[in-house]
Design a protein that fits this description.
alpha/beta, Rossmann fold, 8 helices, Phosphogly_mut1, EC 5.4.2.11, isomerase, glycolysis
Amino acid sequence: MSERLLVLVRHGQSEWNLKNLFTGWRDPDLTALGVEEAKKAGARLKAEGYQFDIAFTSQLSRAQKTLDLALNELGQTDLPITRDLALNERDYGDLSGLNKDDARVKWGEEQVHLWRRSYDVPPPGGESLKDTVARTLPYYVTEILPKVLQGNRVLVAAHGNSLRALIMVLEKHTPETITHRELATGAPVIYRLKADSTVESITDLAG
């Protein structure tokens, strides 16, 4: 029987994560810790005996580098990789590049919290989580899910919010509960799917 394996990995810590900046579609590199997190993700998957047939990532270098480092640990540097902006992080618009504490001073704690944690309120010039779902989910349904259901073992390295869009469907979250679903950097989450595309089991390799 085909395995129907889907593994999601959030990129390792980026330079702007470290500096507490809104990142979105901006393209900072991984920190030294982020590099280690990416390598550790690959090492964890290797230790559990996982191998992959195809990988997907965003058009942002922190996700691409995380994927490359993980695949190097897995000994799968020649794996086919598809890069698409549909898997990019949520676009934070006018907040991109701003320090989160400075943004709270400028707009107030409550407003910034609403932009960051509500489901459908976008920051100025940017995307809400709902907008990110509308961008990411169709790509999952048309490009990633069919590969999984065909029996391919699929690895996706992307971002906190683009992965939440997938997790919303996989784990059957509501608009209220998905905003509280945390994803550790560099921690693989492993889904085995049934033939009808619903989840049979979840294994979280965080920690």
